[in-house]
User: Fold this.
Amino acid sequence: MAPVRLGPEVQLEPDQPPLRRALVLAAVTLVGAWLGLVVVGAVHAPVGPVDTRMSLHPSFSGGTDVNVPPLGALELDTHHAPVRLDVDVRRLDPVRAGAIVNHPERLEGLDEEVAGDVRGNAVNLAVRSSAAVVAGATAVGLVVYRRPRRAMAAGALALALLTASGVTAWATWNPKSVLEPRYSGLLSSAPSVVGNARSIATNFDVYRQELARLVTNVTKLYDTTSSLPAYTPDPTTLRVLHVSDIHLNPTAWNLIRSIVADYKVDVIIDTGDTMDHGTAAENKFTEAVPDLGAPYVWVRGNHDSMSTQEAMATRKGAHVVDNGDVVSVAGLRIAGIGDPQFTPDRSVRAEGDPAERGAGRRLADAIRTRDGRVDVAITHNPVAAEETDGVVPLALAGHTHQRDTTVLRRGTRLFVQGTTGGGGLRAVESDEPQKVQTSVLYMDRDTHRLQAWDDITLGGLGLAKAEITRHLPKENEKAAMPRSEGQP
Assistant:
């Protein structure tokens, strides 16, 4: 049916279902807004000593991505809204960086300068993005509808959506996200370079000087591709590497050696399932333990036999804990109990959680009878570890191949580690390879209180992605946050 003309500018069209009209308008708006952001929505601006490109992109989860080629990327969980902020570091300005290097005292006001740059650029980005989405949606609307009124409706809807996204981002803004970034690429070494949050909060003057050295080396990296400086450990920090469920994967030993060297690890704690079937032939696998570079505290898993335990006990630098035994390593008092169940394959019927709870209660009773404080309780199964709630400040476990951390009802923090061996041979049994997971725990050398921890995740079989995420206990987050004006 041809349109019926009632005048020079007014037309009637065949009626369309309202839902269809709305869906078409939404599609036109989203496509146009996206094109506008991509083509003209970015802002090029300096932030401190670097030149950046800031842009907004549609996203299901929000957040902020800081890309620093060729070093890698930094992901911050800053907000939850259907829009993501990308900050691409394009160039390190040698003049501005050189001024900081030659005059480290200028770091005194660098944080305020950077904050001011970010605020100003954010305002410019908001204005430019608003114009970009309106122009993009209006242009696509003209192409599709060929009517100015419909095109302007698409532009107005695009502006409304961007405004709603901005309000949502502001309402869900998480300033603490800077304390728990996720690193990838060469930036994965950043936690070991910068140090733990407590040392930054309490020794900020020293940190300023080290930051100047870091700026110097990053400048050299851009110019001569040199590496970042080696990290000198904070003398008040004790570093514990938690590994678990290696399952005969020899590449796990290489990873552990690398982390021990890079993070200056004081003690390694393995919560079991080093083996796959616990056979005597597998015991040769433990020969790598003396060469890992740090003392090795081990507890038996359900895939480790008593023969495995005996072999591990003979290795230089290894400390086997079982039946509530306590060992003191690097100043930490560690107690543990081996898994009461030995299930090397599916032909063995497991006793289930009751056996694990019984073992956990025996461990808790043994700790209560010891003279002096026990800092860490270790078991293989988390069900057993839960029984030490209120008896120790920290408990470590594995078994599930799923990393998790929680504070139990009586105050004990329970860490459940993933599989440091990527599931071993089991990695090829499922469609998706299991990730390789381990964690570095930062503890006060005097009080043995947990300060922070880094979760290290590597892509599983056939993957090459690396990620490090910094976490802080709730009691440390407030101390590590910078104080704003007027804040107590």
In short: The longest strand covers residues 83-92.
